[in-house]
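Exam revision sheet. Question 4 asks you to relate a sequence to its structure. Input first:
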Amino acid sequence: MTQQDVDDHRVAIAELASEYWKLLRNYDHVLAAAPENLRAGLTAQAKFGARRLVAILAGTGMRIETFDGVAYSVNLPVTAVNADDFADGVAPVIEQTLEPAIIFGTAAIKTGRVYLRASNQ
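Answer key, structure tokens:
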């Protein structure tokens, strides 16, 4: 296996991890709509899935990073979908992580996507 193969596999795992993270986040909406008698089991299943995701990524040397509530900086491994709204010098804060960053060591394998809000809100 070449270094390029390893890099391609790592990128593919990072993409899959990001999609799985988004699926788990959207699963919260299913939980809210589920009958009360099913919620405990569904919640346990979601927590187990989240722990497995973290463990599997850790086994490959990767981790998921989210940035909700963090002051936005261009040095973060994210793209702000509404960055143009803050061109006037207002210091924005990350309101919501739309897609997590996937980090390997100190390098971002996959850049996250975030939504910003003004820091004084």
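Marking note for examiners. The chain is about 45% helix and 25% strand.
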